[in-house]
Design brief:
Blueprint (H helix, E strand, L loop, with lengths): L7 H15 L16 E2 L9 E2 L7 E7 L4 H14 L7 E7 L4 H10 L6 E3 L4 H6 L6 E5 L5 E6 L6 H13 L1
Parallel strand pairs: 3-4, 4-5
Antiparallel strand pairs: 1-2, 3-6, 6-7
Length: about 170
């Protein structure tokens, strides 16, 4: 029997799941919960750190992603297009990267043309506070900082659902 060569993606996925399982929170953030605050370094080395509080007063789509996550890669350009449907002072998308290496994430972002801010959650501390156990995972947070919707896996690619939730929050 030939040994199976593990791809870099498979190794990264295994490392992520191992870290998340080791330090999983007692309870995941759910709709109706206040969004846990964070301040993380921006992926753009020249940008200020990204802080949840900076987005207070607007609807926020917060997505946890990694360069090895195929659904994450597929959804990013669509999220970038979606964010342009509302004024930036009313809606924003923020990505929180969970790669184990900053260079992997930076290389990935250089290949994907997106304009929304991304931060590095190296070590996954913010992901643990949100209860992220698989990628992609997203949280739609209202202007008051309360989680309105939690999206996991394929739900993060349901742009009809995402648009509907964001539109309903824009009306409030």
């Amino acid at each position: 029997m030939k040994p199976v060569a593990l791809t870099r993606s498979a190794l990264a996925c295994g490392a992520f799941l191992g870290v998340m399982a080791w330090a999983a929170p007692a309870m995941a953030v759910q709709a109706g919960d206040p969004a846990p605050g964070f301040t993380l370094p921006a992926m753009d080395a020249d940008a200020e750190p990204i802080t949840l509080a900076d987005y207070r007063g607007k609807v926020l789509y917060l997505e946890f992603w990694s360069s090895w996550c195929a659904p994450c890669r597929r959804s990013m350009p669509k999220l970038d297009a979606l964010r342009k449907d509302w004024p930036q002072e009313k809606f924003e998308v923020v990505g929180l990267n969970l790669d184990t290496s900053r260079p992997d994430a930076v290389r990935f972002l250089e290949r994907v043309s997106i304009g929304y801010p991304n931060a590095l959650d190296l070590g996954g501390g913010t992901a643990r506070r949100y209860g992220v156990s698989a990628l992609p995972a997203a949280f739609i947070i209202n202007a008051e900082g309360v989680v309105e919707r939690v999206l996991k896996g394929a739900q993060t690619e349901d742009f009809t659902l995402i648009r509907s939730v964001v539109e309903s929050l824009q009306e409030n």
